[in-house]
Amino acid sequence: MGRQYLKEVTGLPGLKTAPNMDVSAIVKDVIYSIRKDGDAAVRKYSEKFDKWSPPSFKLSQSEINAAIANCPRQTLDDIEEVQQNVRDFAKAQRNSIKDFEVELRPGVHLGQKNVPIDNVGAYIPGGRYPLLASAHMTILTAKVAGVKNVIGCTPPINGKVPNSTVAAMHLAGADEIFIVGGVQAVAAMAVGTETIQKVDFLAGPGNAFVAEGKRQLFGEVGIDLFAGPTEILVLADETADAFTVATDLISQAEHGPDTPAVLITTCPKVGRDTIEIVERLLYNSDLSTASVAKTSWDAFGEVIVVDTMGEMWELGNQYASEHVQIFTRSPRDALEHLTSYGALFLGEKTCVSFGDKVIGTNHVLPTRTTSRYTGGLWVGKYLKTCTYQEVTSEQASGDLGRLCGRAARAENFEAHARSGDLRASKYKKDQIQWIKKSQAATGVRL
């Protein structure tokens, strides 16, 4: 039969010709202004983009307490339960990363230490929805890694402090919380202002402007990863329940109007039924986000039928999607066959929404096929893996000196070679001509 497309991508009208350079230029101007004018520029852009200009963007402890007090008790309980899941998994990750030291040869000690970044800026988006989970994923994970200072920024929602987001940020361990959003937030954290401390690393998802801001600031600060619109890929065989597949595709399509939602299946009936059910759920339901999900599904939804499981795995790796759900007879086969994905969700009892909101793994994940070379945000992103070395043996130092001299001269690095020569002379008593001449000229004796 060959590969069959039951539904293909059409794209949004004008999307590919959207003025990307305008986004880049706007972001460049914002960064320049904040670098030049500090807090005044942050306020200007906050007023322009968010209609938000409080006396202070930084929340005081009393304001944080008030925000928490305005949250329902159940919301706070749920935040704490979810954060415990995230904390437990992040701790397990941290415990898997070991410092070590080896004696490579007698008297030559090489070691590795995993050193936390000192200052991190966490961006918690909130333009369309209050994304509490992003606070858990960015701030809490950084704290488990051992980051000393975490600044959190989140935008106002409809001109108000997003109480539940603030509660999540505080409970996650944020040292300072600012109600400021967009590229002005990431730029302020990256370059520093009168009131916002410069950070060393930026983490967290955001819109196209935030993503472009992180791209332009990368190098001046570190970033977690380049992220685009949310993606979901479902890989299914004939055992998959089409209603569940359809529901889970829609769950991600509601993120925004440009979310790829893709089904690859070996079963034509599963494919056809999924399309029919998605249409019914989007057109004939009370789903509050149906209009957004429908736009995304119509433009970027795909359903592909393949002949074999092998072809399904191969095509899945080509898509290299952010979220990959496995609805097959043996879901754990995916662990052997898939190599490019942000996160895997194995079996019908698991769904991407668990990963997005509650289960404990991190939801800041690679998109747009970048999972071919990177994983998502995790404890290790907040750690600098640093090496050290110590030579305690005169014999080893002399031997390495001889080796260094030869290796460096093979690359025409004479000064490097002489550092090695010096150890060979001191500890192996090698007679080296340039050292003799230098001693005569300087009067220095080894």
UniProtKB/TrEMBL annotation:
This protein's UniProt keywords: Amino-acid biosynthesis, Histidine biosynthesis, Metal-binding, NAD, Oxidoreductase, Zinc
Entry-linked InterPro entries: Ald_DH/histidinol_DH, Histidinol_DH_CS, Histidinol_DH_monofunct, Hstdl_DH
Descriptive protein name: Histidinol dehydrogenase
Residues engaged in binding substrate: 230, 252, 255, 323, 356, 411, 416
One MF term in the entry's GO annotations: metal ion binding
Protein residues bound to Zn(2+): 252, 255, 356, 416
Enzyme class: oxidoreductase
Cofactor remark from the record: Binds 1 zinc ion per subunit.
Known role: Catalyzes the sequential NAD-dependent oxidations of L-histidinol to L-histidinaldehyde and then to L-histidine.
Pathway: Amino-acid biosynthesis; L-histidine biosynthesis; L-histidine from 5-phospho-alpha-D-ribose 1-diphosphate: step 9/9
Cofactor dependence: Zn(2+)
Single GO cellular component term: cytosol
Family: Belongs to the histidinol dehydrogenase family.
Record: active site: 322 (proton acceptor), 323 (proton acceptor)
Catalyzed reaction equations: L-histidinol + 2 NAD(+) + H2O = L-histidine + 2 NADH + 3 H(+)
EC number: 1.1.1.23
Binding site for NAD(+): 123, 184, 207
Organism: Penicillium cosmopolitanum
GO biological process, one term: L-histidine biosynthetic process
